[in-house]
Write a structure and sequence with these properties.
- The chain has a domain of 89 residues: General secretion pathway protein M, EpsM (Gyrase A, domain 2), CATH 3.30.1360.
- 63% of the residues lie in helices and 23% in strands.
């Protein structure tokens, strides 16, 4: 005879085993969710800290940009002021420079008794002088005196010297050029 076990022991064991597996799976899932939640919280805190740092750096950058704009504006105003001061200085030199140049020229001619002027022209910083002299030595001394005496004249060059005989008197006619620098009149 066969024995029939009508007691549900296998099914009960399977049920208990399934419950235990389900409990272990649920516990593992809960631990995984708790771990992920912890990781998410830490990462979110790091992100918030980094965003605060980025915002602080952005504020510093904006403040530096404003400071740079103010410095640039100041530099531009300083440059304009410097240009105005240079323009004023040039106007002063242009006003007094020619008078000082003529004074230097007159003082040099006063010392050099045998040299005289017949023409004087100034254009674009170049002074052209024409005149006469009794001898070559007088003309040479005059040229050297112009070079040494006046800070306003430089690059003195003798252009042309011709001998002229007029009414029984022999003298030299000469042309001379030099550069003018009214800025040295200061």
């Amino acid at each position: 005879m066969m024995r029939i076990n009508l007691l549900p022991t296998k099914a009960a064991r399977k049920q208990v085993s399934a419950r235990q597996e389900l409990l272990v799976f649920a516990g593992g899932l809960a631990i995984a969710v708790a771990g992920l939640f912890g990781w998410w919280t830490v990462t979110l805190a790091k992100i918030d800290t980094l965003e605060e740092r980025v915002a602080g750096v952005q504020n510093q950058f904006n403040a530096a940009q404003k400071d740079k704009a103010r410095v640039d504006e100041f530099a531009q105003k300083a440059k304009k002021l410097e240009q105005k001061l240079q323009a004023i200085e040039q106007l002063k030199n242009r006003r007094t420079g020619p008078a000082k140049l003529l004074d230097d020229l007159a003082a040099t001619l006063t010392v050099q008794k045998k040299v005289w002027l017949t023409s004087l022209q100034e254009r674009d910083g170049v002074l052209a002088l024409e005149g006469g002299a009794m001898e070559h030595e007088d003309l040479s001394e005059f040229q050297m005196a112009l070079t040494k005496r006046s800070r306003l004249m430089s690059n003195v060059k003798l252009a042309l010297v011709t001998t002229v005989n007029k009414d029984g008197i022999t003298y030299l006619e000469w042309k001379l050029t030099c550069s003018t620098n009214y800025g040295a009149a200061g």
